[in-house]
Amino acid sequence: SAPRVQRTFAGQGRTADGVHVELLANVADPASAKAAAAAGAEGVGLFRTEFLFLGRPDEPGVDEQTRTYHAVLDAFAGRKVVVRTLDAGADKPLPFLTAEGEPNPALGVRGLRTAALHPDVLERQLEAIAAAAARSDADVWVMAPMVATPDEADRFVARCAAHGLAHAGVMIEVPAAALQARWILEEATFASLGTNDLTQYAMAADRELGALAELSTTWQPAVLRLVAAACEGAHVAERAHEDDRGAQGPRERPVGVCGEAAGDPALAPVLVGLGVTSLSMAPAALGDIAAVLATTTLERCRRLARLALGSRDAWAARQAVRAALPELD
Ligand code: PEP
Ligand code: MG
């Protein structure tokens, strides 16, 4: 028989001692979703829906949205697809949604905050996501960008529930949300750490400015502490409900990472050691991340996490972890 085509990665991400770490893809449209499926991604950890909205004068209609979302879901039948609702504003301004002349757009009305001023745009998007989900076999999860408070998270989950979308979560990319994850994950059923923005806001360093690249890295121990705090908050939220659930077992509140950090082979095991259970990245990175996890036990990931957290700065954290992972050289 013909030789099988070699894939970048296939199967499941696992540590050396067999702990499953979901290896997911970041996608933006049907074409990138198909490419991610061909690369062997277990699912989609971040579908950036704003790409359908960018560069046009007005909002795409519900039917057009439904068709595009369905085409992405179709590439991942039977698998998980995390659809992020519109993340407009700041680096992704939209003429029909983004306020002009905000002095600090990164701190302005962006992400889920736009839904307070334009609730109809979110409603139509949720309607389209629900319609696409109803026609597909994918396991559809929905999440909101730029959530800062438990109230914002609760309101979003309620809107998703009204559309029959039961798996509703939030991105944690604002430091306050990382610190309040315990309450944010009362109603929200999962969280995904947007380490690009989380780093920008923790370090007060514009992610677009090359001049600040040394500050803008998730290797900053202060950023890793926020990751750890979010994972700990999720565990507290899980345990708080163990008693009421009894025989049904503990409530799950998985925390993933969908920022660039997830695709860094030295940082990925650190994130797993901090308590992250899925990593979503550019498909090209899947093979390298699968390989490093396959040689690293969960205990070793935790040791790497302690090394990074205990370091004085980003440079030292990266040095210490790289020295403890000689197989990456
Ligand atoms: C992030 O902020 O890390 C993220 C994944 O979202 P985006 O890069 O689209 O802002
Ligand atoms: Mg972001």
From TrEMBL:
Superkingdom, taxonomy of origin: Bacteria
Residues binding phosphoenolpyruvate: R48, R84, N196, D197, R207
Localization annotation: Cytoplasm
Cofactor(s) in the UniProt record: Mg(2+)
Single Gene Ontology BP annotation: phosphoenolpyruvate-dependent sugar phosphotransferase system
Record field: catalytic activity: L-histidyl-[protein] + phosphoenolpyruvate = N(pros)-phospho-L-histidyl-[protein] + pyruvate
GO cellular component: cytoplasm
GO MF entries: kinase activity; metal ion binding; phosphoenolpyruvate-protein phosphotransferase activity
Active site: C258
Domain PEP-utilising enzyme C-terminal: 13-294
Annotated EC: 2.7.3.9
Magnesium is among the record's keywords: yes
Enzyme class name: transferase
Keyword terms: Cytoplasm, Kinase, Magnesium, Metal-binding, Phosphotransferase system, Pyruvate, Sugar transport, Transferase, Transport
Family, per entry: Belongs to the PEP-utilizing enzyme family.
Job of this protein: General (non sugar-specific) component of the phosphoenolpyruvate-dependent sugar phosphotransferase system (sugar PTS). This major carbohydrate active-transport system catalyzes the phosphorylation of incoming sugar substrates concomitantly with their translocation across the cell membrane. Enzyme I transfers the phosphoryl group from phosphoenolpyruvate (PEP) to the phosphoryl carrier protein (HPr).
Name of the featured protein: Phosphoenolpyruvate-protein phosphotransferase
Name of the encoding gene: ptsP
